[in-house]
Every structure is written in structure tokens, then in C-alpha cells.
Amino acid sequence: MRNIFRNSFGDPNMLTSKLYNQDTFYEAFLRDLRRCSHTLVIESPFITTKRMNTLLPLLIKLRRKGVRIVVNTRNPDEHDYEYKTQAVTAVQMMQEIGIEVLYTVKHHRKLAVSDDEILWEGSLNILSQNDSCEIMRRIDSPLITQDALRFIGLHIS
Fold it and tell me: What is the pTM of this model?
């Protein structure tokens, strides 16, 4: 982890940014999720039951706190049989707890936004990552986060 941009001037509009890999991402991401208080957006083209089984208990807690959660992914029909079956099961689990699931054709973005303030973006499939070399950047900036939400066309606040 390296702090590339430093908020050395005490300006709350300045951003901070840190890089994570597949070994360090989930610990930091889960810490952000535990602090999430009103909205969470996750874009992940692939969803596996193994990763969902890890994340679902925390997502359930967030929903019970009233956090609005939106997941944007590929339509399960775009996957081969194994991934399709897992995606269908995971989508059903998410919808049962009140997570809004959106489908985007040929979706391949990997990002997450927590409370319109924290942006995660990179190459890691948040809802399916298992055994691959990846990178994710955590950006703490409401301005950049809002820019990303506008860019992807999601305005959920």
C-alpha cells in the first residue's frame, strides 16, 4: 500500500489514494463496508457463490441498518453454465435481502462506492475474485466518487 496523493494541506476536498492487491483488498474493503451508513454500489461482472458466502453476512447487516445496496453485473445468461448457475443463485440471495441488482450487457467494470465518499476501482472482480493477481485503488474523495457515479450513470443517493 502506498499513499500516492497526500492531503498535506488539510483541505477536505483533497483526495487520498492507496493501492491494494488481491491479498490486501478484502480486509480494507470490509472495513469500509462496516462503516457504510446509507449507500453502497458494487459493479462486478462475475459473481460466485464462494465469494457471496463470504460477503453476504455483512451485506445482510448493512441492509438491516437501512443501507441501500445496488449491484451492477452481467446478465447470468452471458456466462457459461458454471458461472451462470452461481450468478443466478447469488442474485437470488441478494434480491431476497433487498439488494437491487442491475444488469449491463457485456459488463466488465470493477468498482465500488461507499456512502458517496469512497471509491474503489481496479481489476479485481469484487463479487467473485478467488485466485488471480489484481489491483484496486481506494480513493477517498466525494468529488471523484460523484464523478464516477455520473460516469457510470448511477445516481442513487
Answer: 0.88
